[in-house]
Amino acid sequence: MFNPDDIRKEFPILGRQVHGKPLVYLDNAATTQKPRCVIDAISEAYCTINANVHRGIHHLSQVATEQFEEARNKVRGFINAAHSHEVIFTRGTTESINLLATTLGNTLLHEGDEVIISTMEHHSNIVPWQMLRDRTGIAIKVIPLREDATLDVNAYRQMFTDRTRLVSLTHVSNVLGCTNPIKECIDIAHSHNVPVLIDGAQSTPHIKVDVQALDADFLAFSGHKVYAPTGIGVLYGKEKWLNRLQPYQGGGEMIQTVRFEHTTYNELPYKFEAGTPNYIGAIALGKAIDFVESIGIENIARHEHALTQYTLERLNEIEGIRILGKPDGSAVSFLVGDIHPADLGTLLDHLGIAIRTGHHCAQPLIDHLGIPGTVRASFALYNTKAEVDALIEGIKRVARMFA
Ligand code: C6P
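Above: the input record for the complex with C6P. Below: its predicted structure, written as C-alpha cells.
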C-alpha cells in the first residue's frame, strides 16, 4: 500500500523546521529531497569501494567499475532502453542537451538546417540551440501554443520542411505542469524522417518514460529530480544515432589510441564520457532508481496526480486566483490577484512553505503569457494533502494581508 506518511520517514530533511515551522517542501520540480538509502549509498561507496573506474587492475577499481556499470544498466531498465551503451552519463539535463547540440553541430547540422523547439521550453532547451545557430547558421523554429497554453500540434505538423533535422521538445512543462502528446509529436517527426530529443527533466521523476515504446531518438534527464544526488544525469540516444556523432569532449576514457599525429575514439558509451565520470553519483542514481521502482512509478504518478487535482480544487476557493495552463502532472503554476509572485513566495517561506516563484528558467513562455512570473507548487511522492491544506491556508493568510 502506498502511504506517503511512511515514505516521509525515509527522508531525513522532511523532519526539519524552517522559520520555526514544519517544512512543507513543494519545490520538487527544482530538485527532490533524498531518501536515506541514497544518502547512505554515497557514504558507503566512499567508505568501502572508492577507486577510479575503468582504470585500475586492483580490486577496488574493479568493484567500483562493476557498480558503475550496474548503475548504467539500472538506468537502461528505468527508461527501457534496448542497450546499456545507449546510456551516457552527464551532469544533468542541461549538459545532455548541450552535448547533443554541440556534437550534432560538429557532425550532422549545417547552415540553413532547422531545429524545432516549442514556446514552453526551459532555457536549457533554447540557449544551446541559439549558440549552435550563432556558430553554424542553423535556424530555430518555435511551435506556438494554443489559447489554453497547450502545444499547438496542428501548427507543429505544418512546420516541417526538407531542411528540418531535429525536434527537441519538453515532455512535461516545468512551468505549466502539462504533459505534451509526445508520442504523437514523435510519430509526426518520424513521418518526415526527423529524430526527436525529449527533454525528460520533468517527466522521468513522475511517469513511466519508455524510450522504446515512444520510439524516442534521444532523452535527457537529471538525477537530482529523481531522488538522486546533484551532478549526475543521462543522455539516452539510439545506438544508430550515437554512432554517427563525433565525441563531445576530448580526454581520458573516450579514446582507444592516442598518438600525436592521430587519435582513435572509444566505443559507446565511453566515446562521450571524457575524464573521470561521476561514478559515485551514478551508483547513487542506481540506488534512487531502485527506490522509485520499489514504490512503483505508476503509484507515484497516481498519488501526485491526485495531489495536483486536490490543489486545483482548493486553489479555486481563493479569490482572484489565476491558474496558468492546464496542469495534469505534478506541478501547478498560479497567480493571486495583483500579489507579486516574489512577495507571495517570501511570505509563504516565513510559514515554512517552500515553493518556487519567477520565470522558472522559461522566460520566453512567461513573456508569451504576459505575466511577471508565476508561483509554482510542485509535488513528489512524499507530499501529502495536509501539506496542500497548509499551502492553501498560507495563501489565504497572505491574501488577507494584501486585501
Ligand atoms: N528546471 C525548475 O525549477 P538541470 O538544471 O540540468 O538539472 O535541468 C534543467 C531543466 C531542463 N528542462 C526542464 C523542463 C527543466 O525543468 C529543467 C530544470 C528546474 O523548473 C530548475 S530551473
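Notes for the reader.
Residues 29-30, 92-94, 122, 124-125, 170, 174, 199, 201-202, 222, 356, 360-361 surround C6P (CB under 6 Å).
The first helix runs from residue 4 to 8.
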